[in-house]
């Protein structure tokens, strides 16, 4: 109290009265009480928060699991058909590469023997009129053949999809002629 009075000596007369001193003391004690009550409240809140974390730390609720299952189901319903289409389209490269390889073999046969081979299999001698090649594409997704009317002056190579590529309804068969014309028996853009 003496320190307040010594401070009050420099202040104008009547500025520090007893009631002002008692009010400031009351406000200081109220401030300390509110600080204590705030810290007590925050401790209670922390303990409640810790309890709620312990409750959720045990696992997932059924609702959360069902939401995840629904989301995964929707993604799978959209993604899987797109994936299957992409796989089918990428397998077409096997048939295309096999036809291009056979066409090159036909051109080599033409340069060596003076005419195109009328058979894919058989011996590649000019007497046998065969290319001596496999009748299946390298990856096995297409069966390879020559069109029935193949002669020594023209040919049409055919790659027909076999299982599992037979699911390709847009391009069930790819064709390539001696003039380089690429075609298909389906409706899709196969080349």
Task: Give a brief description.
This protein has 191 residues and is of the alpha+beta class.
Set out the fold topology.
Blueprint: H1 2-8, H2 18-56, H3 62-113, E1 142-146, E2 156-161, E3 173-177, E4 182-184
Antiparallel strand pairs: 1-2, 2-3, 3-4
Commentary on this structure:
The chain has helices at residues 2-8, 18-56, 62-113, and strands at 142-146, 156-161, 173-177, 182-184. The longest helix has 52 residues, at 62-113. A 4-stranded antiparallel beta sheet has the order 1-2-3-4, covered by helices on one side. Helices cover 51% and strands 10% of the residues. Residues 3-9 have low confidence and may be disordered. With 191 residues, it is of the alpha+beta class. The radius of gyration is 45 Å and the shape is rod-shaped.
β content, as a range? 5-15%
Helical content, roughly? 40-55%
The stretches of 5 or more residues where confidence is low (pLDDT under 50) are 3-9
Rg (CA only): 45 Å
Spatial order of strands in the largest sheet: 1-2-3-4
Distance between the termini: 101 Å
User: What class, by secondary structure content?
Assistant: alpha+beta
- By DSSP (H or I, 4+ residues per run), the number of helices equals 3
Overview features:
single chain, 191 residues, alpha+beta, 4 strands, 51% helix, disordered N terminus
